[in-house]
């Protein structure tokens, strides 16, 4: 065989024989002796395997990167990078991001040379030349079955991981749906009440200010009766978006029911809470929501809102329910005073 041919990594395919479910599996034969490579290949050919050949360590690593063989039959003694060193590299890169699991059968002409070292480095089997071809065939079949089982396990684990991630994603979606108002995208009442309990407890523990705001769209029933419920929904979404953009990220805004909204402002005292309420009220008063009639007539509808706000710590507000009632009383006081205004609870 010419020197150029010896340097080349070859791929040889034989017709399937009696290999059964293992037919078509790829076996990489690594040996610097072409006659031994041919001997092994011919002995295993009836099994219907596909073969690749390499004549030294670097060629072997190149072939592994290119074709990911199912099994490697490799001579221990080769010039330069020997079989034990190549085995070390293969097993060090056996993760999913590397070569994956590839069984390695080491072959040597010396009875005990490198056997323990090779097995300790992860070689899966060891043969001493010359070996009986029936024994080689049996060991190859055993290692390929191990490879099939390992590949199946990896694929099942991958599928399980994918299913778990999908389950977690769906669980998060369901959790978000259970905590979100479908129309406005804000938190719903149930979620808000949970947060109120948490924030009130934190405020009491650290004696930090916490303000609660209740907001009601003025004359909302008239809007619904005049322009229809679809337009009323449009108004609710516009008010929700406007209020949300006037609050901080840490503030909790929810749709409390109907045309009522409610907000928690952590670390916000009475003076700052009043400023926030006025900012929200002014933004809503500046809104113009366009109504388009069935005839195509366009009309800008102006909106206003009334707000009530209460803050703890406060001597007369010793529970979350009391804080809520105080803000609600402020809201009704704002409506009674003519709407489009803010009323603040005073201890």
Automatic annotation (TrEMBL):
Residues 208-347 form the GGDEF domain. Residues 146-180 form a coiled coil. This is diguanylate cyclase. Keywords: Coiled coil, Phosphoprotein. InterPro entries: CheY-like_superfamily (IPR011006), Diguanylate_Cyclase (IPR050469), GGDEF_dom (IPR000160), Nucleotide_cyclase (IPR029787), Rev_trsase/Diguanyl_cyclase (IPR043128), Sig_transdc_resp-reg_receiver (IPR001789). It catalyses: 2 GTP = 3',3'-c-di-GMP + 2 diphosphate. It comes from Myxococcus landrumensis. Residues 1-25 are annotated as: Disordered. The lineage of its organism: Bacteria, Pseudomonadati, Myxococcota, Myxococcia, Myxococcales. Residues 26-144 form the Response regulatory domain. Its EC number is 2.7.7.65. NCBIfam families: GGDEF. Residues 1-14 have a biased composition (Basic and acidic residues). The modification 4-aspartylphosphate is found at residue 75.
């Amino acid at each position: 065989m010419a020197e150029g041919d010896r340097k080349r990594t070859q791929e040889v395919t034989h017709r399937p024989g009696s290999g059964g479910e293992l037919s078509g599996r790829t076996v990489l034969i690594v040996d610097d002796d072409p006659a031994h490579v041919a001997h092994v290949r011919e002995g295993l050919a009836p099994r219907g395997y596909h073969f690749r050949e390499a004549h030294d360590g670097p060629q072997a690593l190149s072939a592994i990167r290119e074709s990911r063989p199912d099994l490697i039959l490799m001579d221990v003694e080769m010039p330069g990078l020997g079989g034990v060193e190549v085995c070390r590299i293969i097993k060090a890169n056996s993760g999913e991001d590397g070569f994956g699991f590839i069984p390695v059968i080491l072959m040597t002409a010396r009875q005990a040379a490198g056997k323990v070292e090779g097995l300790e480095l992860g070689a899966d089997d060891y043969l001493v030349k010359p070996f009986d071809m029936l024994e080689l065939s049996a060991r190859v079949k055993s290692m390929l079955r191990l490879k099939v089982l390992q590949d199946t396990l990896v694929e099942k684990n991958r599928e399980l991981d994918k299913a778990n991630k999908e389950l977690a994603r769906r669980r998060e979606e369901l959790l978000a749906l259970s905590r979100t108002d479908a129309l406005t995208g804000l938190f719903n009442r149930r979620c808000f009440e949970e947060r109120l309990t948490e924030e009130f407890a934190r405020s009491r523990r650290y004696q930090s200010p916490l303000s609660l705001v209740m907001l009601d769209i003025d004359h909302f029933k008239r809007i619904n009766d005049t322009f229809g419920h679809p337009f009323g929904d449009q108004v609710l979404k516009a008010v929700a978006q406007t209020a949300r953009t006037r609050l901080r990220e840490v503030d909790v805004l929810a749709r409390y029911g109907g045309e009522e909204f409610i907000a928690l402002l952590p670390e916000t005292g009475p003076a700052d809470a009043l400023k926030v309420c006025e900012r929200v009220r002014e933004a809503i008063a500046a809104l113009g929501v366009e109504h388009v009639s069935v005839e195509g007539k366009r009309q800008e509808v102006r909106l206003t809102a009334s707000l009530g706000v209460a803050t703890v710590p406060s001597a007369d507000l010793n529970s979350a329910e009391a804080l809520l009632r105080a803000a609600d009383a402020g809201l009704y006081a704002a409506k009674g005073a003519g709407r489009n205004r803010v009323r603040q609870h005073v201890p």
